């Protein structure tokens, strides 16, 4: 008969299932933002080199804070393969990524 050890916690990966387990595995693999919700730093944002926004869907809602002095966010829908220009002049385009 085996002995029981009390006071030790089990590994959360043993109990997690579904999307929670995939999130934990992504964190262990080094992806600290598996759902792609953290702010993205803007690059040049020109028509030739738009800011690439990762998305596992064919469309994504994007909020652009045009500069540091505004108190509101401009929202727009991006569609896969169609670059779009914000009112401030920055260009954005979706780039495909694998879903979690």
From TrEMBL:
One of its GO terms (biological process) is mitochondrial electron transport, cytochrome c to oxygen. Zn(2+) binds at residues 64, 66, 86, 88. Keywords: Metal-binding, Zinc. Gene3D superfamilies: Cytochrome c oxidase, subunit Vb. InterPro entries: Cyt_c_oxidase_su5b (IPR002124), Cyt_c_oxidase_su5b_sf (IPR036972). GO terms for cellular component: mitochondrial envelope; respiratory chain complex IV. It holds the Pfam family COX5B. This is Cytochrome c oxidase subunit Vb.
């Amino acid at each position: 008969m085996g002995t029981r050890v009390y006071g030790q916690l089990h590994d959360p990966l043993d109990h997690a299932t579904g999307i929670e387990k995939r999130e934990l595995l992504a964190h262990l693999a080094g992806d600290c933002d598996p759902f792609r919700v953290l702010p993205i730093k803007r690059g040049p944002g020109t028509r030739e080199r738009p800011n690439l926004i990762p998305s596992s869907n064919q469309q994504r809602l994007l909020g652009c804070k045009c500069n540091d002095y505004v108190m509101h966010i401009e929202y727009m829908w991006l569609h896969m393969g169609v670059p779009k220009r914000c009112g401030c002049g920055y260009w954005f385009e979706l780039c495909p990524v694998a879903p979690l």
